[in-house]
Write a structure and sequence with these properties.
GO molecular function, one term: hydrolase activity
InterPro entries: C-N_Hydrolase, C-N_Hydrolase_sf, UPF0012_CS
Pfam family, one: CN_hydrolase
Distance between the termini: 31 Å
CATH topology: Nitrilase/N-carbamoyl-D-aminoacid amidohydrolase
Oligomer: single chain
Structural class: alpha/beta
Organism: Terrabacter terrigena
Radius of gyration: 17 Å
Largest sheet: 6 strands, mixed
Family: Belongs to the carbon-nitrogen hydrolase superfamily. NIT1/NIT2 family.
């Protein structure tokens, strides 16, 4: 499985339209990969709360259309990071706004969405502006010359909640994809928790973070690919960078067979 993580850097001086065009062009350069991943809220600004309302859009909005076209042109499965989604509220108490990941097929079809379950902000930020998602999502990603790989979706702050990943594992996930806007001051947690999720669930972890500084927040970068044993196969620095790597997905199942931790679970 050939994977690319686009650790995108951006600041406050770039318009959403310009950034979207730049990102779409980057995706198009990555033809030949099976899966390309973008960071969380790269179009709306991960910490740019004051602009989220005006930048919210439907899952078939302007940003989504640009990503769909880029996925089709490159012939890749594209995890488009996440957008601020505006839709129909689930209940009268809801806002109808979510932090939503979008996954497009190599033909440009929207094949999966995931609304972030754990909202960051301790009562402010996301919890005050967005609704929480409820659904677990595992999507099969086709691989050239091989079988499709089941990929579990999560976003940024979700990484701190291991029970989510156990439930994705129980739904068949062999790979976890985690787009993020994780700040520099806690980047040590970002890398350590990614390895922990890989080790405890015997899954490959793909962590795609944001670089640069926006809304007075310095982002952490240090995207990484971790195999099912917890070994870091590839990692980025603090600046914009693309990680491109071939992952031996068969090795995950072999590791589970030779070191069968998971069957010894006793607590659901």
């Amino acid at each position: 499985m050939k994977v690319a993580l686009i650790q995108l850097a951006y600041g406050d001086d770039e318009s959403v339209a310009d950034r979207t065009a730049r990102v779409a062009d980057l995706v198009r350069t990555l033809a030949g990969h099976d899966l390309v991943v973008l960071p969380e809220l790269w179009s709306a600004g991960g910490f740019d709360y004051t602009h989220w309302d005006e930048r919210a859009e439907a899952v078939d909005g302007t940003v989504a259309q640009a990503l769909s076209a880029a996925a089709r042109d490159a012939g890749v499965t594209l995890h488009g990071g996440s957008i601020v989604e505006r839709g129909t509220p689930v209940s009268d108490a809801d806002r109808g706004v979510w932090n939503t990941s979008l996954v497009f097929s190599p033909t440009g079809e929207l094949v999966a969405t995931y609304r972030k379950i754990h909202r960051f902000g301790f009562g402010e930020g996301e919890p005050s502006l967005m609704d929480a998602g409820e659904d677990l999502v595992v999507v099969d990603v086709p691989v050239a010359g091989g079988n499709a790989v089941p990929v579990g979706l999560s976003t940024c702050y979700d990484l701190r909640f291991p029970e989510l990943y156990r439930r994705l594992l129980d739904r068949g996930a062999e790979v976890f994809v985690i787009p993020a806007a994780w700040p520099a001051r806690r980047v040590g947690h970002w890398t350590l928790l990614g390895q922990a999720r890989a080790i405890e669930d015997q899954c490959v972890v793909l962590q795609c973070n944001t670089a640069g500084t926006h809304a007075r927040h310095e982002m952490g970068g240090h995207s990484q690919v971790v195999d099912a044993t917890g070994k870091v196969l590839a990692s980025a620095g603090p600046d914009q960078e693309v990680i491109s790597i071939d992952i031996d997905t068969a090795a995950t199942l072999e590791w589970r067979r030779t070191f069968p931790v998971l069957p010894d679970r006793r607590l659901a």
